[in-house]
From TrEMBL:
<protein>
    <submittedName>
        <fullName>Uncharacterized protein</fullName>
    </submittedName>
</protein>
<keyword id="KW-0576">Peroxisome</keyword>
<dbReference type="GO" id="GO:0006633">
    <property type="term" value="P:fatty acid biosynthetic process"/>
</dbReference>
<keyword id="KW-0444">Lipid biosynthesis</keyword>
<dbReference type="GO" id="GO:0019166">
    <property type="term" value="F:trans-2-enoyl-CoA reductase (NADPH) activity"/>
</dbReference>
<keyword id="KW-0443">Lipid metabolism</keyword>
<keyword id="KW-0597">Phosphoprotein</keyword>
<keyword id="KW-0560">Oxidoreductase</keyword>
<dbReference type="InterPro" id="IPR052388">
    <property type="entry name" value="Peroxisomal_t2-enoyl-CoA_red"/>
</dbReference>
<keyword id="KW-0521">NADP</keyword>
<dbReference type="GO" id="GO:0033306">
    <property type="term" value="P:phytol metabolic process"/>
</dbReference>
<dbReference type="GO" id="GO:0005777">
    <property type="term" value="C:peroxisome"/>
</dbReference>
<keyword id="KW-0276">Fatty acid metabolism</keyword>
<keyword id="KW-0275">Fatty acid biosynthesis</keyword>
<comment type="pathway">
    <text>Lipid metabolism; fatty acid biosynthesis.</text>
</comment>
Length: 97
């Protein structure tokens, strides 16, 4: 494990290379913490929720907090697992990311 500090991951930076992470559930605090860690490691993140406005706010905040040298991307997608068309859209969005 590496050294932890502001805007740094506690994991070794080279641990993940060109990964894509999908975050589909979790309360706002847990989701944000996981996404922050993955973005700091250089992961591209796709995240979904049925509450898109809240999700968009979180992803905009995380995008703004990334250092200029970090090329990781985070993309929010509205997704309600109870609606078949939204499950399909999420699957297509994931595949094309």
């Amino acid at each position: 494990m590496g050294t932890w500090g502001k805007d740094k991951s506690c994991q070794v930076a080279s641990l993940l290379q060109d990964p894509l992470a999908i975050i589909t559930s979790g309360d706002t605090g847990t989701r944000k913490a996981i996404m922050t860690e993955l973005l700091q490691l250089g992961c591209n993140v796709v995240t979904s929720s049925c509450s898109f406005d809240e999700l968009k706010s979180i992803t905009d905040e995380l995008k703004a907090s990334l250092s200029p040298t970090n090329q990781a991307q985070v993309n929010p997608i509205k997704h309600n697992i109870c609606k078949k068309e939204e499950v399909f859209y999420f699957s297509v969005a994931f595949i094309t990311t």
